[in-house]
Amino acid sequence: MKLPVLFLLLTVVIDAMGIGLIIPVMPDLIREVSGGGLSEAALWGGVLSTIFAVMQFLCAPLLGHLSDRFGRRPVLLVTLAIVMADYALLGLAGTIALLVAARALGGLASATQSTASAAMADLSPPDKRAQGFGLIGAAFGLGFIAGPLLGGLLGELGTRAPFWAAAGLCALNWVLGLLTFPETLTEKADRFHWSRANPFGAFYALTRLPGIARSLVVIFLYHLAFAVYPLVWAYFTTARYGWDAGLIGLSLAIFGLSGFVVQAGLIRLLIRQMGERGTAIFGLSFLAIAFAATAVVPNTALALTLVPLAALGGCFGPAATAMLSQGLGPNRQGLLQGVLTSTAAIATIVSPLLMTTSFAWATAPERTTPFAGAPFVVALGLILIALALFLSQSRQNAVA
User: Fold this and answer.
1) CA 241 → CA 153, 237, 244, 300, 302, distances in Å?
2) CA–CA distances in Å: residue 295 to residues 126, 227, 374, 376
3) What are phi and psi of 272, to 5 degrees?
4) Contacts of 235 (CB under 8 A, 6+ apart)
5) What is the CATH number of domain 201-400?
6) Among residues 159, 155, 147, which one has the least CA distance to residue 29?
7) 184 three-class SS
8) How far apart are the C-alpha atoms of 347 and 317, rounded to whole Å?
9) Tell me, what's the pLDDT at 230?
10) Under CATH, what is the fold of the domain 1-177?
11) Dist. CA 353–CA 350, nearest whole Å
């Protein structure tokens, strides 16, 4: 693997680690800082997660457009430095205000993935971009696995230890980028446009192009539905099957590893056989099957069998991104990736309202027949709408 590609993948791994790293230690860290109980810590945890997602939504188009104007290399190196500062602040934070500042900084820096994806598009021929985006997705999945593991193991040494370890990894990757990563953008944007540097202007600029608006709606629905796993999986499996933390962790590890295999290797075979459009339809279809089956599956063995099936749904993301990317020039790849990251961030903000609320409603104590699978029914409906929109758009393009 070439060193520039390795640097991009490590950047995305560290970016994803930032999401999962804080999960094992955050309850204890918040209680340590605030002096309150677990319920108060949970409320603050929700506030911090929302701040992270909002900052990601606001800043992803800015970083993407900056990379279109000034190049991928300076933006990646500066944002990696911000990530180091974020981890250091988390390691030193002694007040809730500093934790809030750190999560805002982390949300800004997490938009690095949009620049890394744009650089991967620069390095990949048009017909190989889906494979490149698949590697980005695999790196994100690997980081999402490594983050909770690292946080849990190092958390035994103290609530601050995971953050200092992550800061060290980030520093090593920054040095690797400084020494080995060249500028990948050959045709820079003529000037900086504030209208494209904010999420609203960036969305407007892209959606004026034919077919982009509907594609973004489909991608939003996909992210909104896929969020059912991180949001309610632990609650669902506890209510339906009585799983403990160990079995929940095992199932999530299986999911992460399955997603890694799909993104890193299987997607290449699928695109070779079915093309990008066929692979996108394949991903949405398998996700619909997985949601429908998970909602009603009666026992642990079948539930674990369905986990790799759901991971196949991850084929949709790289294939759909590649289809959009091929319709844009090199100096709009950063803008596109920024908008896609913001689209995912909006789904992260909205999804708890759908998934956790439907679970709470369907499993309320007063219900004589609780139905823990309700969130997966909601996710199924969203995916079916996304699939219908995608298929109708494809038909319209064929007619045109």
Assistant:
1) 27, 5, 9, 6, 11
2) 39, 15, 7, 5
3) -65, -35
4) 356, 359, 372
5) 1.20.1250.20
6) 159
7) coil
8) 14
9) 76
10) Growth Hormone; Chain: A; (1.20.1250)
11) 6
Pseudo-torsion of CA 4, 143, 358, 43, nearest 10°?
-110
Question: How do residues 372-398 score in pLDDT, each as one tens digit?
Answer: 899 899 999 999 999 999 998 755 454
Tokens of 355: 């998934």
pLDDT surpassing 50 at residue 339: yes
More confident residue, 380 or 256: 380
Task: Find the DSSP H helices in the chain.
Answer: 3-21, 26-34, 38-70, 72-92, 96-110, 112-123, 129-155, 161-180, 194-197, 199-207, 212-226, 228-241, 245-261, 267-296, 300-311, 316-325, 333-362, 374-399
Give the burial class of 175: count Cβ atoms within 10 A of its Cβ; 0-12 exposed, 13-18 middle, 19 or more buried: exposed
CA distance 393 to 399: 10
Is there a contact between 24 and 157 (Cβ–Cβ < 8 Å)? no
- Provide φ and ψ at 295, rounded to 5°: -60, -30
Three-state secondary structure of 319-334: HHHHHHHCCCCHHHHH
Taking the CA atoms of 230, 298, 388 and 132 in sequence, report the sign of the dihedral they define: positive
Between 287 and 129, name the one with better pLDDT. Answer: 287
Write down the pTM of the prediction.
Answer: 0.69
Query: Helix (H, G, I), strand (E, B), or coil: what is residue 198?
Result: coil
CB 330 within 8 A of CB 336: no
pLDDT at 218: 93
Q: Which two tokens stand for residue 395?
A: 């038909």
Q: Is there a contact between 144 and 20 (Cβ–Cβ < 8 Å)?
A: yes
Structure tokens at 322: 């590649």
Mean pLDDT value across residues 199-222: 78
Task: Give yes or no for a contact between 178 and 77, defined as CB atoms under 8 angstroms apart.
Answer: yes
- Domain ranges for the chain, please list them: 1-177, 201-400
Going by the DSSP 8-state scheme, the letter that residue 242 receives in this structure is: -
* End-to-end Cα, the chain, rounded Å: 40
Which among 196, 181, 140 is positioned nearest to 321, based on CA atoms? 140
